Amino acid sequence: MKRVIVFLKYPEPGEVKTRLAAAVGAAAAARLARHFAEQTLAAAVATGLPVTVCFAPARRGPEFSAWLGTGYDYVPQRGANLGERMRHAFADAFARGAERAVLVGTDAPDRPTEFLEEALTHLDEHDVVLGPALDGGYHLIAMRRGSFAPEAFGSKEPGGIAWGTPRVLAQTLDALRAVGRTAYMLPPWRDIDDKPSLDDYLDAHPEAAHLLDDAGQTGGAQ
Fold it and tell me: Among 90, 111, 134, 160, which is most buried by a count of CB atoms within 10 Å?
């Protein structure tokens, strides 16, 4: 069985897209976060595979299901940092019967759906598939149950992956090589985490520009 895992944080103003919020305001950043989540989930659903929404914070569970509906499995994120949360998400998916899983966040909402499908296919010949982000991290990671590599998330060396820095991808590849895992790299895609990357996104998706305008909005993400 194959599965798509989508990491989501509840789009509360002031709690999401904080770098973007510095440029566009907390309410607009939350509206964008909500839009990015919905766009990401639409791509996940388009694969035809079961989708797990791995959400945070855990107390928001009822609000996530009210917002997104009943078509997903909902699992709260667990762990002290991003690496631990991703490691638990993969381990849980494999424990529930998945043979292959691809995990994405919502910072690259317009990544082609084909990337998710290709990632799972390339696991035929590789242990791990990564989608590089232009900022030095990655926007997608896929693994097989038979060659699950928790080391990719820094589990063998707490703090070994400098999450949120341009070193993430390089450190992840080093960790995989150290345990003899092969990795395939998809084409790079940009994360949307600052004003220049947002401007690039809006050039490609002008229909989303209204999300920046507080006029007529009623409180942003609720």
Answer: 90
Sign of CA dihedral 97, 41, 56, 127: positive
Domain architecture of the chain: domains with CATH? 2-206 (3.90.550.10)
pTM (global) more than 0.70: yes
Of 112, 86, 3, the C-alpha closest to 50 is 3
**Tokens at 138, concatenated:** 């990655």
- pLDDT, tens digit (0-9, with 9 covering 90-100), for 34-54: 999 999 999 999 999 999 999
Q: Are strands 183-185 and 73-76 parallel, antiparallel or unpaired?
A: unpaired
Task: Give Cβ neighbours of residue 169 (< 8 Å, ≥ 6 apart).
Answer: 130, 132, 133, 136, 137, 138
